[in-house]
Each structure stands twice: as C-alpha cells, then as structure tokens.
Amino acid sequence: MQHDDLTLPPVLQIGEFPAIAQALLNERLTLHSLADIDADDALRARIGAIATRSNYDIDIALIERLPSLRIIATSGVGFDRIPVEFARERGIVVTNTPDLLNAAVAELTIGLILALLRQLPLADRYVREGMWSRGAFPLGSSLAGKRAGIVGMGRIGKEIARRLEPFGTEIAYSGRTRQSLPFEWFATPVELARWSDILIASCPGGSATRHLIDAAVLDALGAKGLLVNIARGSVVDEAALVAALQRKAIAGAALDVFEHEPLEAGSPLCTFDEVVLAPHIGSATHETRLAMARLTADNIVSFLTTGKALTPVC
Predict the structure, then answer these.
(1) Which of 261, 264, 286, 287 is an active site residue?
(2) pTM for the model
C-alpha cells in the first residue's frame, strides 16, 4: 500500500508501537525518529505531525523545535502527557483514539477483579509448585453480590458497569456530576469507597485527579475492600496504598497502571500476595491496538489534507 498522500509532510514518531500497528503506520505515513531530526535541521523544520502513544511524554521543548508542527496524534485515550494548552495556543491540534479501547480495558478490569477475588495468581503458583498434593487451596470470594464503586463514569466506566451487571453486582459511581444512570451517585470518592466492596478507578489522569485515591479514600474502603486501578498511575497515591496494604487497612489491590512506569522490580507493591500487577495492558490486544493505530493515522491524514481532525481533544 502506498502512503495516503505523497505530498503529506513528514511525521515524527515518538515511542514504540506493536509490530502490527507499526506496519500500518509505515504504510500510511512517512515516519522519522528523534535521531533523524536531530541529524537534519531541514527535516526537523518540515515535520508537520507527531504520532505517539499515550504513555510517552511530549514536552514543550520538543514542540518549540518543530516550527511546522500542526497536529499531535496520540494512540490512546489519555492525553495528560501532552501540553494541550500550549499546543492550543500555538494552533496545534491534539487528537486521541476514544472508544476503540473501551471494551478491551473493561474486559481486563473484570479479569483483574476475578484474579483478586479468586486469588488466581496464587492458585496458578500453587499448582506449578506442587502444593496441590499437600492440601486444598484456600477459598476465594464471589463477585456475585458485591458492591462495585466506579470512580469516573465515562465511556470506559460505563463499559465496566455493563460487564459487571450480569455477575449480580450492585453498582454505584462518583464523578463531577450526577448522570442519568440507574446507579447510585456519590459526590466524593470517600463516600463511594465507604459504600464499596470493590473500588475501581476509571477516571482521566492529569493534575485534577492526581492522588484522587488517597489515604482517606483507602481508609474509607476498609479492611475488606479491594482497589482496582485501570485509569492512570497518578490517580492513586502509591505511597498511601503501600501503607494501607502494610497495615491491612484494605484487603488487596489490582493495578494495571503506576505512578512510574515500568514499575521497578524492587517496588514494595511486588511484595504483597494480595496485590495483582499488570504491565499497563488495558488496551493491549491485537485488535484494539491495530484499530487505535488506524485512527491515529486517519487523524493525521485527515487534518493535513482537509484541515479537520476526526477525534480532536483541542
């Protein structure tokens, strides 16, 4: 397949993409690396777009080096690592890939919850290490009848709720405003945590939600409560979470995102049997990542050829 339009300006790629996504981007766009533009000032001056993923930083200094930059297209929902206001001031459009990953993230959320309740990582180890012949594995807990509180009832939050309902789970949520939903609404995460057996963080990242799940929320969740974070690592105060786990203030946690990624092997979070860890794989399916890459390319091509982005955030 040829590039969509051979007159398109060159595109700077920031970060790595899965192989299937990279192949699609290579077919659609003329991609260059940071090393390429560092070695060629003329190329740097012609860069018209940035293609990136939501777990990579795009800083102001980089944008200032690209005088022809018109669009930053991130493959993912989050755009908290892009200086959106600065881009807006310079007339640069920022796009993301909403909705495409909702199902995949919601599926993983259910998997993390079940892994916690039924102690699946420990059960797997129990069999592999030959412990089964020595006795029965400890009993787990059922999801049926549990109260699940969702912090942030956006697109992904609603998908999680839809998948929880068939399990016979009672659902409530917190957010800035009450929505027309058949679920109870709480004004603050503390109130929601006090009601919940399982607290699920599903809100955007950024300064407004930094450490939204703090010591007060964890204390409200209580000694039998479980925390699940599939939002952004910044949403949970990890130091407070570690302290809560150490003093048994909550029963456990399942985390797909962290304040600093990748999580270091020596992190205290790695020491708890009652914690399930995943390497930020919420959207990491072949189908989802390919669709996200396709929309990322579509946004760049559409904006550079028509002046209109398909899914702009600014």
Answers:
(1) 261
(2) 0.91
